[in-house]
Design brief:
By secondary structure, this protein is mainly α. The protein is built from ten helices and two strands; from the N terminus they run ααβαααααβααα. It has two domains: about 160 residues, no CATH class; about 55 residues.
Length: about 250
């Protein structure tokens, strides 16, 4: 066995303590964690990212052979994404995608007043945009989206001014475990559309990496702040697509 004071022994112990803290949080999620004196440390986030990678690698080792057996493959939309120029792939997959997904799924989960206002504005925008696409509202004119955006932007600004320093509501603390696990489950499920095959249900197991990401990145948001989950998502996407990016870089110019 490795000695406790050896480099390998210390690394295993550090990884184990990161896993223990994560599991304890997942068993009883709360929107705020007590200060430990180590918040916002890049090293802590790096250990969490390593743990994330090890878990996903173990899942992928099982799923990749199963993918071939079940005839699951990349959807046409995903294939079209990787037909773009290399700089667009990197911009969309490594920068735009992670930032937008973290804003939608996790930045607001801390539950403070200002983040709940932003969430409400985002949901209102998504709902309003969907309604404006319905034939029944087609007669509202081309300026309807601009009017909707202006009204919602004003409402969000006023809400931020009013609730900027508001603490986490008690009702939110009570439902937070449902909120936390719900965001991870929804985040995982929406990625089922990345895959295609004769049996849509066969694609469900392949969103397990995204489900794991939703849980670990959500914990990072609570433990380390708004930046940690975004950085982790960016690095994860970069590593997950690094093989394809390498092949695109090395292929001969046509």
């Amino acid at each position: 066995m490795f000695e406790p004071n050896s480099t390998i022994g210390w690394s295993i112990g550090r990884l184990r303590s990161t896993a223990v803290d994560l599991i304890a949080f997942l068993r009883a999620p709360v929107p705020a964690l007590p200060a430990t004196g180590q918040e916002r440390r890049a090293a802590d986030v790096a250990w969490l990212l390593l743990l994330n990678g090890l878990v996903v690698a173990a899942i992928a080792a099982v799923l990749f052979p199963v993918m071939t057996l079940l005839g699951v493959e990349m959807s046409s939309d995903m294939a079209a994404l990787f037909d773009r120029p290399l700089w667009q792939i990197i911009a969309l997959v490594v920068i735009v995608g992670p930032i937008s997904e973290e804003l939608i799924f996790r930045e607001w989960i801390v539950g403070t007043g200002r983040w709940l206002v932003i969430l409400a504005g985002l949901l209102a925008w998504l709902g309003g945009s969907y309604l404006l696409q319905q034939p029944e509202l087609a007669n509202l004119g081309q300026n309807a989206p601009l009017v909707l955006m202006s009204v919602l932007l004003l409402a969000v600004i006023l809400g931020l001014i009013r609730f900027w320093k508001s603490p986490v509501p008690h009702w939110y603390v009570r439902i937070f475990p449902l909120v936390f696990w719900g965001q991870a489950l929804v985040f995982g499920f929406v990625h089922v559309f990345n895959y295609a095959g004769e049996n849509p249900a066969a694609a469900l197991p392949f969103v397990l990496p995204q489900l794991v990401g939703g849980l670990i990145w959500g914990y990072a948001r609570i433990r380390h702040g708004w930046w940690a989950n975004i950085i982790m998502h960016m690095v994860y996407n970069l590593l997950a697509t690094s093989g394809l990016i390498y092949m695109l870089v090395m292929q001969p110019a046509g």
